[in-house]
Hints:
Elements: E1 3-12, E2 15-16, E3 21-24, E4 31-36, E5 45-51, E6 56-60, H1 65-68, E7 79-89, E8 94-110, E9 114-115, E10 118-119, E11 122-136, E12 139-145, E13 150-153, E14 156-157, H2 160-165
Amino acid sequence: MDRLIMGANWWIQEVNQRLRVERLQLPSLTREMTQMTPGGGWFSLDVPGEIKQLEAPFSLNGAHEDVRSLFGREPGDWTNFFYYERLRDIVNGRNLGRVVHLRGLLNEVEQPEVTGKKGEPAKYKVGTIVLYKDIVNGKTVHLFDVFNNKLVINGVNYTAEHNRLIAA
């Protein structure tokens, strides 16, 4: 517990959501698994394959047509989402910055429920994510780029040789 999240912010395109955001969850990172059982073997194991599709749910206080109107776009008419985070290293007494850039589509809008004069937060879901870039203090932790078939983990391009071999 040497790094604590001390604050975060959410931007959709050029619109700052700081005063609106109620809740945000960045995508879970999961791999597709293929079970392998060697012939005559006593054991099986799951071999990781592709990275599963990413989704990022969030909710905003109030009703905002500038966000809601992003629903219904088709692939190619992408929306950029930016998450900014301040981390506090409590051991070394310094701040670190984290930025996550998502490019995808707003695929789900759940209208707020209203009771009397009180409205619940509007719920949204980002999907069809074609770019995921996670940077901490200037270092690329993850980069998933669907169109360029690029996977970078901790600054290492894992797809460079693969793309060279298949002439991607």
